[in-house]
Amino acid sequence: MEIPKRLIDFLNENKVSYEILHHPEAFTAQTVAAAEHVKGRHHAKVVMTRSGNRHLMTVLAANQRIDLEKLERISGESTSLETESEFKAIFPDCAPGTMPPFGNLYGLPTCVDKSLAQEDYIVFEAGTHTDAIKLSYHDYERLAQPQIADFAIKLEPIKRTGSATGRGKTRIQNSGAGSQDS
Q1: Phi, psi at residue 124, to the nearest 5°?
Q2: Are 98 and 126 in contact (CB under 8 A)?
Q3: Which CATH number fits the domain 5-173, given the four candidates 3.90.960.10, 3.40.50.720, 3.40.50.740, 1.20.1290.10?
Q4: Structural domain boundaries of the chain?
């Protein structure tokens, strides 16, 4: 699969500076961030939700998860995570789970967490499992025109596991319902 033409055309028509980043195949936001050597707070992941009877594209940092109660207070409607089968037809030009954070390109309202809005740049999946785009956050906000709100919670690292020497792996705890690490 290639980067969606509508995305590249949109960026070019709006004369913004961006960088296409190629990386080994990756399937989660944290893995893409690591492959691109960017901190999780800069990687903008898309999590699709249903707010009332409509699809809502939410965009948050890779090192965060959605607080559905906060999102419900913001939207004023019952909100839930969507499964891929509920939204994949909206993104026919994207590999599953790799949709770029431009809901306006797909006729969707978009809500960005306020912590991501504080970053100078973002990196996001570009419709494939091997491509990402780096773009200034200011340009992203100008083009996507998202609602900015406080709806995310930072993922907390779990204590290191391993031997008494302290060597081991750090695990990230995600106590939220459903997979939000897309």
Answers
A1: -140, 155
A2: yes
A3: 3.90.960.10
A4: 5-173
Q: How far is CA 41 from the centre of its chain?
A: 10
Tell me the per-residue pLDDT of 169-178, one tens digit each, with 9 for 90 and over: 333 333 333 4
pLDDT tens per residue across span 17-65: 999 988 666 656 666 656 566 677 888 999 999 999 999 999 999 889 9
- Give buried/exposed letters for 82-116 (b at 16+ CB in 10 A, else e): beeeebbebbebbbebbbbbbbebbebbbbbbebb
pTM for this predicted structure: 0.81
* Cα gap 138→116, rounded to integer Å: 11
Residue with token string 């954070």: 101
Distance CA 44, CA 124 (A): 5
